[in-house]
Amino acid sequence: MTSSFLATPAPVQAAQGPLQTNAWLMIALPLLGAVVLLLAGRRANGWGHLLGCATVIGSFVYGLALFASVGSGPAHELALYSWIPVNALQVDFGLRIDPLSLVFMLLITGVGSLIHIYSIGYMAHDQQGRSGARNTERRRFFAYLNLFVAAMLILVMGNSFVMLYLGWEGVGLASYLLIGFWQQRPSAAGAATKAFVMNRIGDVGLALAIFLLFAQLGTTQYSEVFARAGELSPGVLLAIALLLLLGACGKSGQVPLQAWLPDAMEGPTPVSALIHAATMVTAGVYLIARANPLYTLSPGGQLAVAVVGAVTLLVGCLIGCAYDDIKKVLAYSTVSQIGYMMLAVGLGPAGYALGIMHLLTHGFFKAGLFLGAGSVMHGMNDEVDMRKFGGLRRYMPITFATFGLGYLALIGFPFLSGYYSKDAIIAAAFGQSGWQGWVFGGVAVLGAALTAFYMTRLMLMTFFGERRWESLRTAGGEKFHPHESPAVMTAPMIVLAIGSVAAGLFFTSGDRLVGFLTPALGELQEGHGALPHLVIQLLTVGFAALGVLAAWMFVGRKRVAVERPQRVSLPVRVARADLYGNAFNRAMVVRPTSWLTRGLVHVDRQGVDGAVNGVAALLGGGSRGLRRWQSGFVRSYALSMLTGGVLLVAAMLTVGAP
Amino acid sequence: MGVTTQTGAVILAQQSIAPPPIHYSAIAPVLIVLGAACLAVLVEAFVPRRLRWSVQVGLSLCTLVAAGAWLVVYARGEPMGLTTLADTLAIDTPTLFLWGTLLVLGLASILLIADRSVEPGGAFVAESSAAPSPSPRAASGGSTGGTATSIAPAPTPAPARATASVAEMRTEVFPLGLFSLGGMMVFCAANDLLTMFIALEALSLPLYVMCGLARRRRLLSQEAAVKYFLLGAFASAFFLYGLALLYGYAGSVELSAIADATAGSLRSDTLLFAGLGLLVVGLLFKGSVGPFHMWTPDVYHGAPTAVTGFMAACTKVAAFGAILRVLHVAFEASSWEWHWVLWTVAVVSMVIGAVLGLTQSDIKRMVAYSSIAHAGFLLIGAITLTDEGLSATLFYLLAYGVTTIAVFGVISLVRTSEGEATHLSAWSGLAKRSPLIAWVFTFLLLALAGIPLTSGFMGKFVVFSAALTAGMAPLVVIALVASAVAAFFYLRVIVLMHFNEPAPDGPTVSVPGAFTTAAITLGVVVTLLLGVLPTPVLDWASVGGFVS
């Protein structure tokens, strides 16, 4: 079956018509916005945010027109110019328009437009008391946001792995700039650095995979790579699959590189919604779905993806249960939902399209949840500790309603978005043969229960119960005055809430999305698991209901302490410590690096000097006077050169003239 | 200088033998540069002091432009590779490319060196008596008059300007720079080892002097000069010893003769490999490749920043030009034996540069360690010994050199009243004070880190893919990891500039004069162009190989 799919790869056509040949405009528009905003300086203070929104909305409209004209057909390639032409190495600056990239284009520009609009309100007076500089800050914010949209579009529209890498680095850069946007918070700079380091680890994997593809096939263009994937030996395929997975783990916050994503919540909330929930962090899923012909040929690679996804979804859920910071809970929820997507694309042809579907529905409801959290913070003086909230539903009715719908969608409440997409993944996981079906399916159902638990806990602590903020004061010593956000913020939330409700039904009715994606991802294969579909559905809903019930038992019935209880059971302690993820990183990455650095510095500074001293001592006491006389540095440098030279010549003689 | 010596020796030695044919049109760029250097010495001697600076700057810039124009005209005729001056110089495509690179980088360096607006009176003085005196004198003193009106006036009476001595700038730096540049051009065209050695000395000696000319922190500068001189002499000795052994092996110092000798005879391999090893040590020293890098941080730190830029960019180009030629022409046949050794050297250099760069707290030292890491990447390209690797390395050299000069140009702008603020802590919050400079520097650092759409990415991409095609996969893996580690210390500076609060008594950013602005703009534009539209340059770099 897989071989028949590969024998006739989807034909690739050249782009036709003005709409397709000018598709680069979609990228150029937001990029132009970013450049203008960065160059215009203060002059753009008055209209900068409007320009930022207009370019992204323009890009979205173009995307819609493109979508209408292309539809679900073969891929269209658009070569703009020859970017890297050296001998055998030919990389075009080219775009690929196919169902997969179209879906992403619409997601990025659509959600991007909404979040741009929301940011007008959110960033208007949200400068932590630095009201004097607020407008310049907002301009800069929109410039970065536009830059991000452009880079993300390059990532999904590129027609080769090198183009993907270009966008990959671009979104990384924009993401660091936005995470560290609030410069007055020292933790923001730390979070930006952490994101950078973790991403670099992943990037090395991606770069290696690209070089490996190039060395083996002489091209990195998707159409040629996929057409000739059969020429690769199984070992090379596995290596490429694992390296791409490493890249995906870095960008998408998957185990073991998950720790940067929750810290990235230091950025402004719209950034968390757009970049760290709806779009950028899903780039890893896109990468694996895009490279589906390679994974289809490599069962080992597929299994690795599925295992990473399954582990991550559990880890994310478990940690999410222990946090009190509303954004951190949502962040770990994102980690775990991306785990679901990874699990889905790791199932091979049975799951690629399902992973993308969950990605889209998740884009709606998670962006909506983050915007809702931002709205709550907006009304609560930027407080993020849920223990200080409570009973907010009366004060923020629209936020409560939209957030509530997003919540129901996320926990898989029947007939909302998440129900359709997550259910399909769970069913596909059970559909795997042998032990894999039981393990993956079991993990996915357990994850559904945990998701219901921590999200219900969040809802109860924020919107229900006692109004704990009444007796508290803000950091500035004032009373809390919770209030609903302005229309410019609530309108995008309402749109996203509609998406959270309806997207799932829309995508699944008549297998609309799956059918649409078939030219890019291949036919969706139905699994034949041990359990009938209805049982799985009931099981999922049942487990989710158990989670809600448990949350009610533990949180809803009791008083919530304003102070975080310190004497807690072992599991909670472990979860609060991020399952020791940071400790693991320190032990595995930070400490060896610092040891290596210290060791090298030691050799560089003292070691050479020490060697000199040792040699000098051997030569006799007479050298002591000499040593005092000399400054010490040139001498040791010369000695190190001599040592290096002797070693090099000795090595030459050993290999050359034995 | 090397050329004239050779010609003179040939004429003196024999009357009966006809002088060798000289392709003047091919070597004209070198002749122009060296001739102008001699002229500049005369200017120094005879032109009145107040005119000297403008004459020297005009002469140097005209020279480089003229030599470049000649080079372009000559290269457009698509010349065949040839050897001239009794086969001592080889003028082939790599030579032309390297010359072009050197002239561009030389132009940018001269622009930085010539700037007198950032440091009133220029950054160079000769005698220690001209050390900055604490007595405040206005920056508009008579000695900086004359042509200084063409330069942007000082924006604020910042303490940096008020307390700086305005002792006149020493213009010896221009002839020295031209001599050094001429030496570099001969160095990478030299077709025999003796010429190469003479060129090595011709390029090094002026550099040693230039390092010691700093107006500020003179002790550091002079210490750097002495260190560089002593270690450079030591490295030259290695080179010369290697040369002698190779002469013993092949009976000739010509690269092609050595290649012939390695091809199939039953000579002593000990002489060959010991000679190669010693020769390579001398060359690696100049390219600041670890473990022969020890001088680099100290000298980069101590030398006047404009000279550091010149050294970092041009010396590296010349050194790697020579390494490429020596390995490609003379030692290709024996590469199976020696390539493991240079693999190791490349790894050591990358690891040292990337890891030690992490702990630096001075920006010039950090760039020095970055240059050591880059030297490792360049060495990877140099030891592939394929045409692809050759063109990739040439491209990388141009890309790296241009970016580096612009980096040092920016560094020279960030100052306190003590002179340049090179300590990293002084750079925090720079984006708040002068966003443009911070963004330019960010872009340049991203280029050094190898982020796409910059020349740095393109350079790494072509070098690594050439290495991979040549079957050096393990080296590429290490290189990618090293560049990921190195990217971290560039990021540290970016984070510092953009995300930290500026220190209350932080440095001021000088408004650059026209010359520094031109140099930085050139660097940024070329860095961007090579990242977005590398095609013409890559094409030019890959038209042909070495002749011998």
UniProtKB/TrEMBL annotation, chain A:
Protein name: NADH dehydrogenase subunit L
NCBIfam families xref list: NDH_I_L, PRK06590.1
Domain of life: Bacteria
Organism lineage string: Bacteria, Bacillati, Actinomycetota, Actinomycetes, Actinomycetes incertae sedis
InterPro entries xref list: NADHpl_OxRdtase_5_subgr, ND/Mrp_TM, NU5C-like, Proton_antipo_N
GO biological process, one term: ATP synthesis coupled electron transport
Domain called NADH:quinone oxidoreductase/Mrp antiporter transmembrane: residue spans: 159-444
GO function terms (MF aspect): NADH dehydrogenase (ubiquinone) activity; NADH dehydrogenase activity
Chain segments annotated as transmembrane: 24-40, 47-68, 100-120, 141-158, 203-220, 232-250, 271-289, 301-322, 329-350, 398-420, 440-465, 486-507, 534-555, 637-657
Keywords in alphabetical order: Membrane, Transmembrane, Transmembrane helix
Main localization, broad class: membrane
Annotated NADH-Ubiquinone oxidoreductase (complex I) chain 5 N-terminal domain residues: 83-128
Gene Ontology cellular component terms for the protein in this record: endomembrane system; membrane
Localization annotation: Endomembrane system; Membrane
UniProtKB/TrEMBL annotation, chain B:
Topology in the lipid bilayer: Multi-pass membrane protein
Record's subcellular location: Cell membrane; Endomembrane system; Membrane
Biological process terms in GO annotation: ATP synthesis coupled electron transport
Residue ranges crossing the lipid bilayer per the database entry: 22-43, 55-76, 96-114, 196-214, 226-250, 270-289, 310-328, 340-359, 366-386, 392-415, 436-455, 461-491, 511-533
Domain NADH:quinone oxidoreductase/Mrp antiporter transmembrane, first and last residues per copy: 190-484
GO molecular function, one term: quinone binding
Region of interest called Disordered, as start-end residue ranges on this chain: 126-157
Cleavable signal peptide: none
Protein function: NDH-1 shuttles electrons from NADH, via FMN and iron-sulfur (Fe-S) centers, to quinones in the respiratory chain. The immediate electron acceptor for the enzyme in this species is believed to be a menaquinone. Couples the redox reaction to proton translocation (for every two electrons transferred, four hydrogen ions are translocated across the cytoplasmic membrane), and thus conserves the redox energy in a proton gradient.
HAMAP family: NDH1_NuoN_1 (MF_00445)
Self-association state and partner proteins as the record states: NDH-1 is composed of 14 different subunits. Subunits NuoA, H, J, K, L, M, N constitute the membrane sector of the complex.
Protein's UniProt name: NADH-quinone oxidoreductase subunit N
Gene this chain is encoded by: nuoN
